[in-house]
């Protein structure tokens, strides 16, 4: 699913697809594509909207992952159930994984797919315990069974949020045609699953034990960035000059220059980026063609082409968009 407008990440998403915001210098969408490929799924449809051209440029035919990609146009982001409906021709009669393009799962979905294939329910949904589920779909579970689902409830009946990954058989294709728009004006996938439950169909659930992130907000993206950076495989293909000091897990990509600076990992410095007379602290991801000069940066994501120069305060917990100047 890559047709949403990403309103919670504005102003970045006025000009960029939210699924292409980088985590550890890799677009969020790529993690989902890799998770599906690693689960043995190689026929992938990407539902696109206003940012179609940007998504197409970033993913192409899918060759680099060994997958085949079909682009499916959704005229307006009218809800996940509507996105499933417009994908019916692509899906055909096959069971399929539905994966929201801005979600990150540490452990991937291989186990989920294997469990679905072994047990053959009509649907399997992923759940995760969260502190505040009011902005997510929420499942009510009794005696090991899902008894209800509600989208973004003001008073949640549990702390079990619906993670943005599902597996369905073809029964969901009938359900998405029968749901009515919610109070938000969208056709909700949670309402569609509720129809499956009402018909007595088998809807299984799986509680995520590893970390999961819905990266719809800036703080969630920074959290995901910290988690991914902690598992970096260090490498240095850049150039280190002057009396620079490097420590911790670091990835310094080809063409990057660290000049008379301190860099403390975990951190990643992108291609052709220049860090001079500066401090880069832990949990920082800096994309390609960035200039950081006479400044201090920590716990942040700096997108490509940006310039951060001559700051007299430390830049922390920030998400800096493409070609920005600070």
Can you characterise this structure?
The protein is an alpha/beta fold and 326 residues long. Helix content is 21%, strand content 32%. The chain has helices at residues 28-38, 52-59, 80-86, 88-91, 110-119, 171-178, 189-198, 218-229; strands spanning 22-23, 26-27, 43-48, 68-73, 96-99, 103-105, 123-129, 137-142, 145-151, 160-168, 203-207, 212-214, 235-236, 239-241, 245-247, 250-252, 257-259, 262-264, 267-269, 274-276, 279-280, 284-286, 291-293, 296-298, 301-302, 307-309, 315-316, 319-320. The strands form eight sheets. A six-stranded parallel sheet has the order 13-16-19-22-25-28. Strand 3, helix 2 and strand 4 (68-73) form a beta-alpha-beta unit. Helix 6 (171-178) packs across helix 7. The protein is elongated. The model has no long low-confidence stretch (mean pLDDT 89).
């Amino acid at each position: 699913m890559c047709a949403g407008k990403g309103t919670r990440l504005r102003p970045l998403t006025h000009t960029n697809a939210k699924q292409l915001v980088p985590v550890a210098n890799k677009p969020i969408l790529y993690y989902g594509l890799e998770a599906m490929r690693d689960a043995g799924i190689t026929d992938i449809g990407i539902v696109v909207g206003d940012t179609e051209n940007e998504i197409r440029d970033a993913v192409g035919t899918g060759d680099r992952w060994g997958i085949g990609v079909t682009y499916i146009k959704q005229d307006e982001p009218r809800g996940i159930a509507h996105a499933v409906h417009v994908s019916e021709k692509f899906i055909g009669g096959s069971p399929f994984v539905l994966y929201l393009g801005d979600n990150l799962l540490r452990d991937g979905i291989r186990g989920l797919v294997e469990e679905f294939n072994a047990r053959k329910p009509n649907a399997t949904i992923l759940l995760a315990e969260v502190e505040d589920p009011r902005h997510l779909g929420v499942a009510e579970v009794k005696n090991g069974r899902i008894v209800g689902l509600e989208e973004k409830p003001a008073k949640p009946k549990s702390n079990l949020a619906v993670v943005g990954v599902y597996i369905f058989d073809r029964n969901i294709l009938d359900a998405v045609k029968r749901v009515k728009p919610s109070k938000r004006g969208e056709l909700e996938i949670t309402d569609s699953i509720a129809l499956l439950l009402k018909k007595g169909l088998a809807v299984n659930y799986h509680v995520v034990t590893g970390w999961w992130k819905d990266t719809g907000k800036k703080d969630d993206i920074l959290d995901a960035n910290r988690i991914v950076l902690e598992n970096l495989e260090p490498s240095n293909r850049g150039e280190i000059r002057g009396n620079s000091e490097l420590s911790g897990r670091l990835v310094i990509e080809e063409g990057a220059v660290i000049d008379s600076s301190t860099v403390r990992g975990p951190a990643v410095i992108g291609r052709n980026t220049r860090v001079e007379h500066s401090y880069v602290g832990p949990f920082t991801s800096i994309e390609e063609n960035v200039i950081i000069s006479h400044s201090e940066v920590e716990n942040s994501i700096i997108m490509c082409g940006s310039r951060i120069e001559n700051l007299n305060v430390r830049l922390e917990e920030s998400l800096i968009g493409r070609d920005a100047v600070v």
